[in-house]
Design goal:
The structure is a single chain. The protein contains 7 helices and 6 strands. The protein is an alpha+beta fold and 198 residues long. It has one domain: 2-Layer Sandwich (Alpha-Beta Plaits). The strands form 3 sheets. It has a two-stranded antiparallel sheet. The longest helix has 15 residues, at 165-179.
């Protein structure tokens, strides 16, 4: 079974925000919530890099580990989803997530923020696939239609990749080798304090 993953190639991202717009339009995301955002590091400097961020659908999701009502679940495709019917709006998932993926429609104290919202990898929610109720709560279910998330499909530079993690990793590896700097991929030495020949 495929493990669905996102990967953003920082060498290709041009900070156009097409992914953000595609997500908001496809899923009719409420005002004030951004399931996806573009983060720029070293803005305006020669080492500037941009990366598209959303829920990374972690293998061992910290948001699921801290949820007191167990509203998170993982699909057969390894997509981390949640039930808005179970969510109590406590905010624990927001604090546990290293990517800032969980979003709330209101600012407030425990339970007054509303139901949590996050990237669903365009896989809907626990309701019946492609039903109006599913779309109203979670947005488009493109996976049930045999499509990939629209954010990745709309990326003009193909910086944002989505799909089977093994295929995504192979595509990225080929790009890095073609660029000719092997493990010189941006952030590699910072993260791993070493270089590795490919």
């Amino acid at each position: 079974m495929a493990r669905m993953k996102f990967l953003c190639d920082a060498d290709r991202c041009i900070e156009c925000n097409a992914c953000v717009t595609a997500c908001k339009n496809e899923n009719e995301v409420p005002w004030g919530i951004n399931r996806r955002r573009v983060v720029t590091i070293n803005d305006g400097k020669p080492s500037e890099r941009s990366i598209s961020m959303a829920c990374m659908h972690c293998t061992d999701a910290p948001c699921a580990a801290v949820c007191p009502v167990d509203c998170f679940y993982t699909t057969a495709d390894a997509v981390v989803l949640h039930s808005k019917d179970l969510c109590i709006g406590c905010g624990y998932c927001f604090y546990a997530c290293p990517f800032g993926a969980p979003q709330y429609p209101k600012v407030g104290n425990f339970g007054s923020r509303g139901k949590m919202d996050k990237c669903t990898f365009c896989a809907g929610g626990p309701e019946v696939d492609l039903s109006p109720v599913e779309f109203q709560k979670y947005g488009s279910n493109r996976l049930a239609e045999g499509k990939l998330p629209l954010c990745a499909e709309m990326c003009s530079t193909k910086s944002l990749l989505a799909g089977d993690g093994a295929i995504i990793a192979q595509i990225y590896k080929e790009r890095v080798v073609k660029r000719g700097y092997g493990s010189g991929a941006w952030g590699w030495q910072t993260a791993y304090k070493e270089t590795v020949a490919i």
